Amino acid sequence: MTPIELSTRRRVTGLTSDEFARLFVTIENKVNGENAQWDAADVESWEIVGPPATADQHLVDTLGAANEFVATLANQIYHAAMPVADGTRLVAYGDNLTFWAEHPGFGGMPYALWNIAALQAAEWIRKETGVICELEAHHPLM
């Protein structure tokens, strides 16, 4: 994966370097059982000089898993919200701690992925029903 491809795909996914590094480590640990030690500084350097060969395929897998997660989650949010009426609100989060507290099964997944899924679900609802759903931000726990 080239540096520009990594940078572009991370940004399109809606993740900061830190969030992407956490997601990358979470997925790499689950897939390989390894104790990955990558962090935001690593991701930022990979976006300049390119990732090491040992991380390249894992990065592709991580981006694919993030996209699959968002699509699946958007579908679940969509079906949970249906049928909708004017004034229907979908939940969004402003930080990981609040997101993980309300959804402990998603620990390690950045809240940004949920928010992207909620936006996708809102768009599907708008296209199908004409109802515009608003996102209701849950305030941080701290």
From TrEMBL:
Top-rank taxon, per record: Bacteria
Name of the protein in its database record: Uncharacterized protein
Organism: Bifidobacterium callitrichos
Lineage: Bacteria, Bacillati, Actinomycetota, Actinomycetes, Bifidobacteriales
